[in-house]
Design a protein that fits this description.
Blueprint (H helix, E strand, L loop, with lengths): L8 E10 H10 L1 H8 L2 H7 L5 H19 L10 E4 L5 E4 L1 H10 L1 E10 L3 E10 L3
Antiparallel strand pairs: 1-5, 2-3, 4-5
Helix pairs in contact: 1-2, 1-4
Length: 131
């Protein structure tokens, strides 16, 4: 890895969630859970997936990982972090969370999501601009 003035400055967050927990939320309070935690774009994408609970869990983990990378933890509104797209997910920030990222100098956020049979995990890397 390169060092010095040209080295990228990164903030990293990681999260892991049990798919069954998300599946229960989708069964008990489907509309409330979707509206509280996901944007309409995300809901449209995730409801089309072959295993929606797994996909919702992955996106939920990605949102938590982004919050951790930004240093806010879960002190954000879930829909302020939008994780969308097929293949490599993209992150779009809105509202207060976008303001926090801008103040920290974040120029991009990359996420990676993975699943096992029982869990979903995500890592988020916030890339900071030059000082």
């Amino acid at each position: 890895m390169s060092e010095g003035l040209n080295a990228p400055r990164l903030l990293v967050g990681l999260d892991l969630i049990e798919i069954e927990r998300v599946e229960r939320a989708l069964l008990r309070h489907p509309e409330r859970f979707r509206a509280r935690c996901f944007t309409p774009t995300e809901v449209d994408e995730l409801d089309r997936k072959p295993r929606p609970a797994e996909s919702y869990a992955g996106r939920f983990a990605a949102k938590e990982a982004v919050g951790k990378a930004l240093g806010t933890g879960v002190h954000f509104t879930w829909t302020e972090i939008e994780v969308a797209g097929r293949g490599k997910p993209t992150v779009t920030l809105h509202g207060w969370t976008a303001d926090v990222a801008a103040r920290k100098g974040v120029i991009a956020i990359d996420v990676s999501i993975t699943h096992s049979r029982t869990t979903s995990a995500a890592v988020a890397i916030a890339i900071l601009g030059p000082e």
